[in-house]
Amino acid sequence: MKRGAVLILMGILGFILISGNQHSKKTNKEKPNIKSESPSIGIQFIQSEWSKVIEMAADEDKLIFVDLYSTACKPCRIMAQTVFTDSLVGHYFNQHFINVSYHFRNSSSGRYLKEKFTLNTYPTFYLIDQHERLVQQSTGIQTPIELIAMGQKAIEQNKKAPNSF
Questions:
Q1: Among 17, 71, 79, 125, which has the highest number of CB atoms less than 10 A from its own CB?
Q2: How far apart are the first and last CA of the chain?
Q3: pLDDT tens-digit profile of 14-35?
Q4: 52 CB burial (10 A radius; 0-12, 13-18, 19+)
Q5: DSSP state of 31
Q6: How far apart (Å, rounded) are the C-alpha atoms in residues 42 and 21?
Q7: Would the pTM of this model clear 0.85, i.e. be above it?
C-alpha cells in the first residue's frame, strides 16, 4: 500500500515538473516576440554613438537618459538586473526619454560624457537635453520609484526653464 502511494506521488511530482519545464520553455520562446512598445519590458537602451543620440533627442523632442557604468561595479549590475528591467520603469522611460547606457571606459561616448560631466562614482545617471545640458544627475542604486521620480523631476524642470541650463 505504501509503495503504491509513493509511486502515485512520484508520478504526480514528475507530471508537475514536466509541465512546469514545458511552460518555462514556451515562455522563453515567446520573449523575443515582445515588441518594444510593450509595458511588460524594462528600459530599452539604444545602441548608438552620442552624436546620433543628440540628433534623435532633437527630432523626438525628448531628454536623454544616460546610464554610465563600470563592469566591475556591483551596484551597476544590480540596477541592470533589477531596476532597468522593471516594467513600470521601462514603460515610463521608454515613453519619455531616449535611453542609452555606456561603459565609462570602453566606449568613446562613455569617455566623452565622463569628461564633460563630473563622474565620481558608479553607477551615474544623467538626464541631458538635446543641447547637451545636464538637467538631472543621480548616483548609486535607485529604487524603481526613485528613478521614475528623477525622470519626472527632470521633465518638469526642463518644461519650466528649457533654455536656462
A1: 79
A2: 80
A3: 433 343 433 333 333 332 222 3
A4: middle
A5: G
A6: 25
A7: no
Residue 106's domain is classified under what CATH number? 3.40.30.10
> 92 and 19 share a domain?
no
Is 75 contained in some domain? Answer: yes
Total domain count for the chain?
2
**Whole-angstrom distance, CA of residue 136 vs CA of residue 140:** 14
CA-closest candidate to residue 95, choices 30, 153, 151, 159: 151
Question: In 10 A of CB 21, how many CB atoms?
Answer: 10
Domain annotation covers residue 39: no
Beta pairing class for 63-69 and 97-103: parallel
Sign of CA dihedral 101, 105, 109, 110: positive
DSSP, res 82: I
